Amino acid sequence: MANVVKWFYVALVLLLSLAGQAAAAGEKTENNELTWPEMTSQHKPWAYWWWMGSAVDQANLKHRLKEYHQAGMGGLHVTPIYGVKGYEDKFIDFLTPKWISMLTYTVEQAAKMGLGIDMSTGTGWPFGGAMVGDEDTACKAVIKSYTLSPGQKLNEPLTDGQLMSLMGCSDKGTIVNLLDKVKQGKLTWTAPDGDWKLYAVFQNITGQHVKRAAPGAEGKVLDPLSTESLNNYLDHFDAAFADYKNDQLPRAQYHDSYEYYGANWTDNFLGEFSCRRGYDLRSHMPAFFGEGETDKANRVKCDYKETISDLHLEFIETWTNWAHDRGFITRDEAHGALASILDVYAASDIPETETFGPSRLPIPGLRIDPDFNDTEPDILVLKFASSAAHVSTMGLTALESCTWLAEHFKVALSQAKAQIDQLFVAGVNHLFYHGTVYSPIEEDFPGWLFYATTSFSPSNYCIWHDIDALN
Fold it and tell me: Over 80: is that where the pLDDT of 191 sits?
């Protein structure tokens, strides 16, 4: 047995030696598949870079970019958010000429250091802001039903929003469209013979405002189901970028996770439904309300959801086409959308997913903060984005990583390393730390802070002096 083991190791050493010689020979051949690829900024970790109040200046931008470069970062994603109290006089409104000049200066300085720059197509998240009026904001459906007996009128006012449909259905199978019988929120129709049930669909704005909006961009969120509203929104970016060349602007535009809460309707939804599904939804209101035969109700609801999916997919495709026409690529976090997640991820250039909280990996000595025991990333969710990249033959899968592994200044790089290894296994190859905060040099520890952790910032002395090793 000892001889067998001995000769096994002799053979192993010989094989390793031959492999080493082959690798050495391969280094001399430029096109050899075994040679190590040239390192680019895409291979290195990037980070979300929160511009608090967009209170940035050129001296601090240049200094911080050098620090990120020296730490082995590949790039930064500019995300303007709310500002720090007491510094209001330094705030710069989003998309103003001064704000654009700071962005283009950042791109210029970053390029000299081999750093990439991306930006959100907005501030905070999701899309929206001061430029979004009621006609372009996210909408929701409000459904109500009423019962009437023969000769009875509806006394309740129909004022729960913009009335999009009002259908009457009798127990004898008669269906009537009553929308034109409504005057100033009052139904003028009297129920004829039979028992009647009325089905009303109202359209309301969700009322949601942009989360963590930056100065100059506070306002309602955009309708994520309307390409017309999107184009109106993007016109403001076109105006801001009009005087700049492609190489003065960021690499990518970014759409954050689908957090358009309650957005399940849009203008002309009924017309879009009829065009795409081949029948009038208004003629099947009982099924839409979940009444009657279960199979029919399920099919009608499925068609409704398919239509929502189609509309949001076209929203993302329109945004990506807009970006391409202006020299950008796109990153999109499609999860959460009321849509075919695989299709929506694949509609951007770089599909991106995210993690929240630590994975309790069975690694001896790995620290898990007890305050975060209820959160754990799901490996299958992590693979949503990489699945889209694989079937669409994309080169990159991005990930908003290491979010809230623990509270500020309580995260060790060993915790981040364990999470990142799991992300690689899930097919992620374009890492974005979540995140780092722009903070002026003169600010003492802990510097400016954004509530979302983990803090991959130069002011976080607990980890910054070693972060180049992790990178």
Answer: yes
Handedness of CA 425, 70, 91, 87 (dihedral sign): positive
Report d(CA 7, CA 15) in Å as an integer: 12
Can you tell me the distance from the alpha carbon of 388 to that of 392, in angstroms, rounded to the nearest whole number?
6
Q: Do 41 and 111 touch, CB atoms closer than 8 A?
A: no
The C-alpha atoms of residue 67 and residue 360 are separated, in whole angstroms, by 32
Output the CA–CA distances (angstroms, integers) from residue 121 to 136, 148, 213, 257, in the order listed: 16, 49, 12, 13
- Please name the amino acid found at residue 254: Y
User: Does the pLDDT of residue 10 top 90, yes or no?
Assistant: no
Is 50 exceeded by the pLDDT of residue 5?
A: no
pLDDT at 15: 45
Between helix 227-241 and helix 294-325 the angle, nearest 10°, is: 20
- The tens digit of pLDDT for each residue in 71-130 reads 999 999 999 999 999 999 999 999 999 999 999 999 999 999 999 999 999 999 999 999
Farthest CA pair distance, the chain? 102
- Grade residue 141 by pLDDT with cuts at 50, 70 and 90: very high
**Alpha-carbon span 250 to 398, nearest angstrom:** 17
Q: Can you tell me whether residue 412 is helix, strand or coil?
A: coil
Q: What separation in angstroms does the CA of 16 have from each of 9, 23, 431? A: 10, 10, 32
Mean pLDDT across the chain: 92
* Contact between 329 and 349 (Cβ < 8 Å): yes
Rounded mean pLDDT, 245-265: 95
Cβ neighbours of residue 339 closer than 8 Å, sequence gap 6 or more:
308, 309, 312, 313
254 vs 348: CA distance, rounded Å: 9
Query: What does the CA dihedral 200, 203, 204, 205 come to, rounded to 10 degrees?
Result: 160
Would you list the DSSP string of 182-200? EETTEE--B--SS-EEEEE
For residues 147 and 158, what is the distance between their CA atoms, to the nearest angstrom?
A: 14
Within 10 angstroms of residue 123's Cβ, the number of other Cβ atoms is: 29
pLDDT single digits (tens) 168-182 = 999 999 999 999 999
Residue with tokens 């970006």: 323
* Distance separating alpha carbons of residues 373 and 61, to the nearest angstrom: 37
pLDDT > 90? residue 198: yes
Burial 139-168 (b: 16+ CB within 10 A, else e): bbbbeeebebeeeeebeeebebbebbbbbb
The answer to whether residue 29 scores a pLDDT higher than 60 is: no
